[in-house]
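HUMAN: Mind sharing a backbone?

ASSISTANT:
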Amino acid sequence: MRRLLILASALILGCIGEHDLPGIPGGNANINGTTTTSGTGGGQLLDGEGGEQPACCVKDKTAPFEGPSWFVITGDGSPGTCPESTIDGLKGHAEMKPIAPHTCGACSCSPAACTLPEGIHTNAAKCPGDGSIAVPFGPDPAGGWEGACSEEGALPANLQCNGEPCAQSLSIPVLPVAPCSPETVLSEPFPDPEWARWALQCKIGPLSGEGCSADYVCAPSPPEGLSLCLYVEGEVTTCPAEYPAQMVFYRGVEDERDCTPCQCSAQQGAQCLAIVSTFSDGVCGMLAGAVVVSDQDASCFDVIPGTALGSAQASMVTDVPGSCAPSGGAPFGELVPADPLTLCCQGIEEPPG
């Protein structure tokens, strides 16, 4: 009976040692090309009686790891390639090379422009018209009035406001000065990151545990330049004893580089002066009154009480744009590796690089 048991064990080991795993060449050796047992001693009995497990048996994954799997790990800046018999899987990079500082486009400011008054109002009282009811008159500044004759907002003669003629005087606010607008010159694209080390998974699964002791699977010996590893999509601090070489790669990068926004200071030096005229007809023919208004002072002028206000016209007499001091456009931030991939590998004394 003992002879039969020994003979059966020899047949099982010989079968596993000679065949390849499906689609994978050379499935009969471990990563070091030596016999791997289930323990750290001189061999593990398959049935408690005798016989070592096949040379292809390696420790299976333990939580939180996945694998075992082949990985191409390079240290020359190239991403590496997988054998044709495998399928590319996870990719990661590490050790970002020194990267040139990113630059930002120069900031500047457009001139602060003089604009026409923001509305004309009638007063049911003589100037200054304080406390009286105001009725808007003339074109809506928001409509882009450029001072040409307009009958928009015309008021008929003898329009009453609480028993008083609405049109006894006209108030015109100071000329507004449009603020400077920040302008940015487009910058060159930020430099792309480069990495000294790369890792590429070459999928060899699924692996079978047939013929191996518990918690072991039969894995093909990786070709030269590849390593047998467990992996986890995250960062861990401890590797299993059977896969002692730990390396952390990153599958992505967070680009925190940017430029401070361009801004403009308050304007200085603008000089704006305009003549605003009102007319009792609708074609700017019969003058009802006119006044000069500036960016510093508002104006008010009296008209015949109850007069019709049929149109308005304005023209800029003095138009000196203001200037602003630009600020911003300073580079800040950096590239930060993201999405860690931890490898725990066999047969690597020192990580390549």
The longest strand covers residues 245-255. Residues 2-18 form the longest helix (17 residues). The chain has one helix and 25 strands.
